[in-house]
Amino acid sequence: MPVYRPLMMTGLLAGALCASAAPRIARAGLCSSCPGNAATVGDGIVFDELNTQIGVTAGGPALKTVTLPNGHDGQLLAKGQVFSASDIVTGRVFSGAALRGLILTIGMPDGREYQLELHRVDGVPIEGLPEPVRTTPFRFYVSPLDVVHDYDFVVKKTKQRYGMRVPCAGASDDDRCPDGAFKEHLCTNPVVTQDLLWTDYKAAVIFTGDHFDKTRTVLDQKGGGWFFLACDGTAAAKMHLLRHTAAGSYAGDPGSNVDPRTTTLDQRTAMLKAITADYCGDGNTWTGDGTPLYWTDARGWFPSAPDRSDLFTRVRSGSLPVEAIWGASGALCLNGPRRRPTKGGLCLGGDLSRAPAVEAPEVLGACSRAVPPCSQNVVLRWMLTHGGPGSSGSSPATGPIAAFNAVKTGYLPTLNADESAIVRGGYVMTVNDPLNPADYCQDPKAYPFVPYTHP
Question: Residues 37-49: what's their mean pLDDT?
Fold first, then answer.
């Protein structure tokens, strides 16, 4: 039997979805205390979107200059998964490895400026840099398992706020003195090393076509030039690598045996809410980075067929507890949240101890709508309805449902209208891992826990 190890679900998205007790501007940056491997230049500036056009901002960082590896001024280009830059003088287009050494200057409305140097592309550094080469490429989690380009930027601060003395005569937590050299990576959070799907926490994927609003709803990206810069392991990166973005879609190939991979906005929203534990569907999150979780989608795209079959069998046997079934409005039904308070023992260290640890009644008490429990009948019927274990979306009549031979639909209680809606409309099922670990300490300073609220 295959061993399907739980995967870490990221807690919070940076920038547009970042949340904190004292949130700042939402889109394109400025969340002061967001957990997660979000893109940050320091000084409390966190962002996930930039615009390719000089000076365009939504309140966060804006692009100031583009300097190509040959020293010429450039114009950034981003469309779908393609990230490149053109030479304003010669018209030459730089892409892939040729972009190494690209320097972007970004600035805040208050005068603070930073340079981002593209250090590595696909794990390969600028020639001569004393950094190891990563040989494992980023790939989509969902077939076809194509390579996805990744980009590792390093940061150098160049200017403080307007009105600060030059040279630097003082610094604060959100306005350090200018750096003498490129130091920190744009993506920095090493919690990714615990996650089987996180390939390189210093790297980011770039894509266009989607915008995630403050309620964790996926929208068509509006306005030209905006692109996601999603650090590995964040919800935005996982959405893309799960092919739940416009850029991650696969239209199909006549010579391929892989079905098209396209998603509706509602399906993307359901996946996003499942990843970020937005149980109530109001944009508030109830999870933390590095939380182990199993999950699968209704069409059987993820995980692989053997792993999905194993997951369904273990759910049916009761050895793995279902957390929730998800739709675009959040959790359609909920049992035990993925991060429950410990009943003894030691707290986990680091950021995990500051993330929520709650029981279902605390979550339900914060929701403005009723969320029923996921009954065994609903769970079994959801698995049967959505292809059976290990299928790729085939119907129960034709899918490989051998593991369910002992569970016939006729032996299950009749569903009421609300239960039927969950079975038909549920797009993602999440399953808690009881061993790795299941319980989390509540931060005493935060009790009773109030969920992270969006800006």
Answer: 82
Residue 312, domain member (yes or no): yes
**The 3-state secondary structure of 103-146, one letter per residue:** EEEEECCCCCEEEEEEEEECCEECCCCCCCCCCCCCECCCCCCC
Asked if residue 230 and residue 273 are part of one domain, the reply reads no
Q: Are residues 86 and 209 in the same domain?
A: yes
DSSP state string for 196-255: TT---TT-EEEE-SEEE-TTS-EEE--STTEEEEEETTSHHHHHHHTT-SSTT-B---TT
192 & 97 share domain? yes
Q: Which amino acid type is present at position 139? A: R
Indicate the SS3 state at residue 191. helix
Residue 340: give the domain boundaries: 265-446
Residue 453 located in a structural domain: no
Over residues 166-180, the pLDDT tens digits come to: 788 778 889 999 998
pLDDT at position 18, please?
Answer: 32
Q: Are 265 and 220 in contact (CB under 8 A)?
A: yes
Confirm if 63 and 104 have CB atoms less than 8 A apart: yes
Residue with tokens 């030059």: 166
Q: Is the pLDDT of residue 432 over 80?
A: yes
Query: Are 225 and 278 within one domain?
Result: no
For residues 45 and 174, what is the distance between their CA atoms, to the nearest angstrom?
Answer: 8
Nearest to 139 by CA among 127, 148, 131: 148
Q: What is the average pLDDT across 201-209?
A: 91
Taking the C-alpha atoms of residue 302 and residue 332, their distance in angstroms, rounded to an integer, is 20
pLDDT in tens, 90-119: 999 999 999 999 999 999 999 999 999 999
What is the average pLDDT across 130-147?
Answer: 89
Q: Give the Cβ contact number of residue 223 at 10 Å.
A: 10
- Is residue 440 within 8 A of residue 342, CB to CB? The reply is yes
pLDDT at 397: 37
Tokens, residue 291 = 């939380």
Q: Check: CB of residue 26 under 8 Å from CB of residue 40.
A: no
Q: Are 69 and 126 in the same domain?
A: yes
pLDDT at position 388 is 53
Q: What is the DSSP letter of 340?
A: E
When the pLDDT of each residue in the chain is averaged and rounded to a whole number, the result is: 80
For residue 288, being part of any structural domain is answered with: yes
d(CA 285, CA 432): 17
Q: How far apart are the first and last CA of the chain?
A: 45
Is-contact 327 320, C-beta < 8 A?
Answer: no
At 31, the pLDDT band (50, 70, 90 cuts) reads very low
374: which 2 tokens? Answer: 């996921």
Q: What is the pLDDT of residues 341-367, one digit of tens each?
A: 765 444 544 444 456 778 899 899 999
